Amino acid sequence: MPVQATMSSDAADLIEIFSSIQGEGVLIGHRQVFIRFMGCNLSCDYCDTNSGNDASKCRIELTPGRLDFEELANPVPMTAVFNLLHRWGRGWPSIHHSISLTGGEPLLHVDHLHRWLPELREILPIHLETNGVLHFALSRVIKDIDHVSMDIKLPSSSGETGLWEDHREFLETAAATDVSVKIVVNSSTEHWEIQRAAEIIAGVSSDIPFIIQPETAENLSLNISSFGLLELQEIASALVDDVRVIPQTHRFIGLL
Questions:
Q1: In angstroms, what is the C-alpha Rg of the chain?
Q2: How far apart are CA 183 and CA 195, in angstroms?
Q3: Rounded distance, CA 133 to CA 137, Å?
């Protein structure tokens, strides 16, 4: 049975809260608190978020990194989240680099984030993981975010189309903070997609880190050849100064 937390009008639908190592992007290797929000406005072919979770419940790790999960009923009150993080801060000081807001798509919950972020940021810096589409929502909370890891969804790997201009506007807004861009690639990725993504980044700033992330199969093999990754990196490097190829390392070491 899920544990009933004190109800609050300022409560959000969450999937889970846990402590782990960031396995993607420029903050790779840092220990973070992950707050995973429910719901997404996209449906990417490679999405690895567990959609089979009971939407009425959120699982919360009681001890950071120990997988001793307890269930809370959704929506989860802000007070329950803050009480947990303050307890972790007292019991395990200095182990976390930042709070990673992930999903789903956290910006679907922008009304909650607008209220939560100033206080969350007093605990730890804020890292937003986002599909890079909801630029109006981002503009409401950008002042309370330290790091933004945004995706550019390639049609070949994600199955999503018609998002290029949304990504451009999102990156223009996100450039007010420490931003990086990630794309997921596989053997179907076409050179023109990398070219267009790199042009969007360079049009804002060629200094923005550009992460090429090979799609990982269930057996942990990569769905693209090593040579294919080198070709994509070469195309991007003609326009962007900082291009990196980084797989999902947390999956290889067996972490959430």
A1: 18
A2: 12
A3: 9
Tell me which residue of 184, 195, 192 sits closest to 240, measured CA to CA: 195
Tokens of 173: 């807004």
Residues 6+ apart with CB under 8 A from 51: none
How far is the CA of 252 from the CAs of 177, 193, 200, 219, 222, in angstroms? 30, 27, 31, 10, 11
- Nearest CA to 140 among 112, 110, 179? 110
Q: Which amino acid is at 75?
A: P
Residues 6+ apart with CB under 8 A from 4: 72, 73
Quickly state the pLDDT bin for 52 (edges 50, 70, 90): low
pLDDT, tens digit, 9 for 90 and up, residues 63-72: 999 999 999 9
90: Cβ contacts below 8 Å, ≥ 6 apart: none
Q: Give the predicted TM-score (pTM) of the model.
A: 0.93
Q: Give me the architecture of the 11-252 domain, per CATH.
A: Alpha-Beta Barrel (3.20)
Instruction: Return the closest-CA partner of residue 163 out of 191, 125, 193.
Output: 193
Residue 72, H or E segment: strand 69-73
What region does 159 belong to: left with phi over 0, alpha with psi -120 to 50, or beta?
A: left
- Residue 4, pLDDT above cutoff 80: no
Task: Quickly count: other Cβ atoms within 10 Å of residue 214's Cβ.
Answer: 24
Written as six digits, the tokens of 237 are 């490097």
Instruction: Give dist(CA 2, CA 198) in Å, integer.
Output: 46
DSSP secondary structure letter of residue 220: S
Query: Is the link from the previous residue into 91 a cis peptide, with omega within 30 of 0?
Result: no
